[in-house]
Structure formats: C-alpha cells, structure tokens
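Case 291 in the screening queue. Each case pairs one protein sequence with one candidate compound; here the compound is biotin. For every case the pipeline is the same: read the inputs, emit a complex structure as tokens, and attach any notable structural observations.

Predict complex for case 291.
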Amino acid sequence: MPGSPYTDLDRPPLSAARLRRALVFPHGPWTRLELHAETASTNADVAEAARSGEPEGLVVVAERQTAGRGRRGRTWQSPARAGIATSVLLRPGEAVAERRWPAVPPTGYGWLPLLAGVALVESVTRLAELDAALKWPNDLLVGGAKCAGILAEAVPGGSPAQPPAIVLGIGLNVTLRVHELPENPTGLPVTSLHLAGAAATDRDPLLRALLRSVADWYDRWRTAGGDAVVSGLRDAYLAVCATVGREVRALLPDGGELTGTATGIDPDGQLHLVTPSGEHRLAAADVVHLR
Ligand SMILES: O=C(O)CCCC[C@@H]1SC[C@@H]2NC(=O)N[C@@H]21
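Case 291 output:
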C-alpha cells in the first residue's frame, strides 16, 4: 500500500516456523497457529473459530489488523509489522483429564486478562529489558505510558449447559514510531518498546516468550482450579501492579466516576477502592493514576 503511513517493509516479518516452537511448550494449551499478513481483528477470527467448535489452544497472529478491537468498544491500531497482535482460544470451563485440569467456574474467568498482563510484564521485562508494570486491570505501562492492551471476550457455548469460551487478545506496540501512536481517550500517554528504549525489538522471540508465559501461568491457574490465590497468580499480579496504593480516578462503564485510593485486588480480580463515600469493588473501569 504505497503512501500508507502504516506500510514499512523495512520491518522484518514474523516467522511461522520460529513461532511454532512456542506451540510445543509442554505445559501449554497451544494446539495450532495461524499467522495472517492482514485480518480485521484476531479476536474476531478466534471468536468465529470458537463458535465453529475449535478446541482450546488456537493461536491467531496478524501482522496488521484493519479493525482491531480495544476495550470498551474502542479501536486498536495495528500498523503492519510494527507490533504483536495475537488472540488465543481458551476453554477454562472444560476439564482436561490428561493435564489434571478441573473445570474452572465462570466466576474465575475474570483473572484471564490479568494473567495475560502478568505474562506481558514478564516477557517485556526479560526480552526488552525495560521496567514494565500494569495499570489495573491490564494496561501495560512502560515509563508511565501505555505500550500494550488486552481484550478478553466471552463466546457463549452452543447450549446453556456448555460454558463460554474465552478469546484472549493481546496487542503490543513494538516498533511504532511517534506518528503511528494512537491517542488514548483517557489522556494516558502511549508508547512502543522501541520509543521506550528497548534493548531488543525482534518480534519472534517476544511473541514466543509471551505465549510461553501465558501457557505457564494458565497451567498453574488451571491446575489450581482457577484459584488465583492458590496458583500464586494474585501475588504475581500484585507484584507488578502499579495501581494498588495509588490515588486514582475510576471511570465506570455506566459513565459514573469515583476518586479514591486503590487498596487491593480481591480473589476475583476486582479492584478495591476506598473513597470518601465508602469502599467499592470494581469489576471493570478505566483507571487514571492521579498520584
Ligand atoms: O483497549 C485495549 O487496551 C485492549 C486492546 C487489545 C488489542 C488486541 S490486538 C489483538 C487482539 N485483536 C483485537 O481485535 N484486539 C486485541
């Protein structure tokens, strides 16, 4: 696409052969990889596969998305070869006897985007050698700016007895340049690993490390029946969460807003907020760090 600000063929493509090495990680759920040069949204692709009965473990990766989805109905920009855009299919409600994974009740599913956030911090810290943290629930912050986002979407089962599948989508800005960065509606600055001074921006190892880390945490969490405390996931999340202990403004899904101190994360992954009007537990919100 000559003339498009998003086309940059100097950026090396992802290698399906190199990425497939992440699929054989022994504890992971990954079964199949699809790598697309372009798609509308990897979350939409995986949701469609889930509706067609695809088993757990599909990984869809795209070099570019034309209609990437963000949280709360927003869009997500995925310029060609400049980031990681991936979605995975998880079926936590189905027991897996050979792995000794019991079925996780749907009340526990809220931890999946937080799990992906922990995996993002681990892989970015290790490979890009940057200090990374999470703004609750799962915005990856590098130097106080957003570098990645996570969108988990539920796909209802085929019958009321069948638990929903979860599409877990991760978008990471790797080599985006300043003119390619989108504006964040809450005023949060946005960055990429390259702009933040990453030691390495090779996307194959980054994505492999990310898939391994998600697989590792998913195995621990599933083995513990979806219990974030027993699996150690809650502690791992708290260790990298930049929100707890801060003064924050929470923009609520109903348009309301609360200002107070974030004091903790409960066993369901909800944020505790202490405000002058009392204590609140938030399942979803856009959080702005004030101090
Ligand atoms: O708003 C956010 O912060 C969440 C952004 C999630 C973007 C990723 S990119 C891969 C996957 N496919 C999508 O359409 N969205 C997610």
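Case 291 observations:
- Residues 163 and 239 are 31 Å apart (CA to CA).
- Helices lie at 16-20, 42-51, 111-128, 203-223, 233-240.
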